[in-house]
TrEMBL record, chain A:
<keyword id="KW-0812">Transmembrane</keyword>
<keyword id="KW-1003">Cell membrane</keyword>
<feature type="transmembrane region" description="Helical">
    <location>
        <begin position="6"/>
        <end position="29"/>
    </location>
</feature>
<feature type="transmembrane region" description="Helical">
    <location>
        <begin position="93"/>
        <end position="115"/>
    </location>
</feature>
<dbReference type="GO" id="GO:0005886">
    <property type="term" value="C:plasma membrane"/>
</dbReference>
<comment type="function">
    <text>NDH-1 shuttles electrons from NADH, via FMN and iron-sulfur (Fe-S) centers, to quinones in the respiratory chain. The immediate electron acceptor for the enzyme in this species is believed to be ubiquinone. Couples the redox reaction to proton translocation (for every two electrons transferred, four hydrogen ions are translocated across the cytoplasmic membrane), and thus conserves the redox energy in a proton gradient.</text>
</comment>
<dbReference type="GO" id="GO:0050136">
    <property type="term" value="F:NADH dehydrogenase (quinone) (non-electrogenic) activity"/>
</dbReference>
<keyword id="KW-1278">Translocase</keyword>
<keyword id="KW-0830">Ubiquinone</keyword>
From TrEMBL, chain B:
<keyword id="KW-1133">Transmembrane helix</keyword>
<comment type="similarity">
    <text>Belongs to the complex I subunit 1 family.</text>
</comment>
<feature type="transmembrane region" description="Helical">
    <location>
        <begin position="288"/>
        <end position="306"/>
    </location>
</feature>
<dbReference type="Pfam" id="PF00146">
    <property type="entry name" value="NADHdh"/>
</dbReference>
<feature type="transmembrane region" description="Helical">
    <location>
        <begin position="252"/>
        <end position="276"/>
    </location>
</feature>
<keyword id="KW-0812">Transmembrane</keyword>
<dbReference type="GO" id="GO:0005886">
    <property type="term" value="C:plasma membrane"/>
</dbReference>
<dbReference type="GO" id="GO:0003954">
    <property type="term" value="F:NADH dehydrogenase activity"/>
</dbReference>
<dbReference type="InterPro" id="IPR018086">
    <property type="entry name" value="NADH_UbQ_OxRdtase_su1_CS"/>
</dbReference>
């Protein structure tokens, strides 16, 4: 059972290492004539002023947090969705197995409506 | 076949599973890179003809050597690392953007039994590994230490994670009716049902009962790969290629390869999850890899067609579509499909 994951692990390691090959090749084959102008960050033709690590919109944080919440909900839905047909076939847990998740989705929906009403999803 | 492999396997002894996996991996990655190379040519040709031009036609017959010329050109260019950049992160960024797009192919079945890792948690693995791509973008944007790269990276990351939620809910719908996370089982389950028994398996595939989810998945896939009309991330007229602005030569090529490998991945997954993978649409034609290739090519053509047709979305419209349209729609459809599966009208006994 677990050995079917071995090729997947090999593939992940291979893919991670694979990206370095073109960079190393480009490093050796391509020219290298750096100068101060070439190495300065792109800024529409004039000298870059101040650091690039500037303040940015707090909405990106908010979005990232909302994403984590929703993504966890999805990960939580996965096992339930996989056995839904078994739940449907089993009389004793049929209603419980269904409404348990509807309640969960209802709570998720409440949170979603709250977030919408507070304007966290607005971009202007 | 077996009799040829046996002596080689004995030669490598205990290391054989590793060697055999590596051989299979190369057997997938080499054709994949050929596809990526010719997808770039196909894109320029298709968009060219749609705009009444003929596209690249100088390098080789019909421009067929153009991708190779592009590759050699990028290889001969200098890799510039800006003076203010975090050097190691600057190199890791593009590697992380390409790596997941390759690693995801470990669980993609090309035909019955043609899969490197036939794992039971295939779909979960895909969801996890494609989420890593966003790190490549963020790391590249941060390491560049350039304002354009930084703003572009924030945009790209926010857009990618937003559409991942809608994609996830669409996957939950597929899961409910196929009862398996294994991609081979998901395809085989689409070959069951009333119409499949009549020899019309095309009508049994997931795209009909899950039609809204099929559309949501396709559009989210385009947004997830930052392709037109969702390509504000690159927005050459405003933030000059976003997180890629400081990259040159092969480091830039990695982002480019990653984007196209991702397009092929999303197309192949859409074919597998909704269009029956390698199944043939009608009973009298044999199933096989050719069908998956045809379906994937068709969806790739849609990617190119959309790029030639639609104007670029505004960023707030993109976010509104993701959060205020797709999430409620998919959430609602999860409940609809759940009720359908529980009810006596279920067609997936």
């Amino acid at each position: 059972m677990l050995e079917s994951y071995f090729p997947v692990l090999v593939f992940i390691l291979f893919a991670a290492a694979f990206g370095f090959i073109p960079i190393v090749a480009g490093w050796f084959i391509g020219p290298s004539k750096p100068d101060a102008e070439k190495l300065s960050p792109f800024e529409c033709g004039f000298e870059p002023f101040e650091d690039a690590r500037i303040k940015f919109d707090v909405r990106y944080y908010l979005l990232a947090i909302l994403f984590i919440l929703f993504d966890l909900e999805i990960a939580f839905l996965f096992p339930w969705a996989t056995i839904l047909k078994e739940i449907a076939a089993n009389e004793s847990i049929r209603l419980f197995g269904f409404f348990e998740m509807i309640v969960f989705l209802g709570i998720l929906l409440l949170g979603y409506i709250y977030v919408w009403k507070r304007g966290a999803l607005d971009w202007e | 076949m077996e009799s040829y492999i046996e002596p080689v396997a004995q030669f490598f002894g205990a290391a054989w599973p590793l060697v055999w996996s590596l051989l299979k991996i190369v057997g997938i990655i080499a054709p994949l890179f050929l596809c990526v190379a010719y997808l770039t040519l196909a894109e320029r040709k298709v968009i060219g003809y749609m705009q009444v031009r003929i596209g690249p036609n100088r390098v080789g017959p019909y421009g067929l050597l153009q991708p190779i010329a592009d590759g050699v050109k990028l290889l001969l260019k200098e890799i510039i690392i800006p003076s203010g950049a975090n050097k190691s992160l600057f190199i890791i960024g593009p590697v992380l953007a390409l790596g997941p797009a390759l690693a995801a192919w470990a669980v993609v079945p090309f035909s019955e039994g043609w899969v490197i890792g036939n794992v039971d948690a295939g779909l979960l693995f895909l969801l996890a590994i494609t989420s890593i791509e966003v790190y490549g973008v963020i790391i590249a944007a941060w390491a560049s230490n350039s304002k354009y790269a930084f703003l572009g990276g924030m945009r790209a990351a926010a857009q990618m994670v937003s559409y991942e939620i809608a994609m996830g809910f669409a996957l939950v719908c597929v899961l409910m009716i196929s009862s398996s996370l294994n991609l081979t089982d998901i395809v085989n389950n689409q070959n069951k049902g009333q119409f499949a028994d009549m020899g019309l398996s095309v009508l049994s595939w997931n795209w009909i009962p899950l039609f809204p989810m099929f559309i949501v998945y396709l559009i989210s896939g385009i947004a997830e790969t930052n392709r037109a009309p969702f390509d504000v991330v690159e927005g050459e007229s405003e933030i000059v290629a976003g997180h890629m602005v400081e990259y040159s030569g092969m480091a830039f090529a990695l982002f480019f390869l990653g984007e196209y490998a991702n397009m092929i991945l999303v197309s192949a997954l859409t074919s597998i999850l909704f269009l029956g993978g390698w199944l043939s649409p009608v009973g009298f034609l044999p199933d096989g890899f050719i069908w998956l290739a045809l379906k994937t090519s068709f969806i790739l053509f849609l990617f190119l067609w959309f790029r030639a047709t639609f104007p670029r979305f505004r960023y707030d419209h993109i976010m509104r579509l993701g959060w205020k349209v797709f999430i409620p729609l998919t959430l609602f459809w999860v409940v609809v499909v759940a009720v359908w599966v529980m009810s006596p009208l279920s067609i997936w006994k």
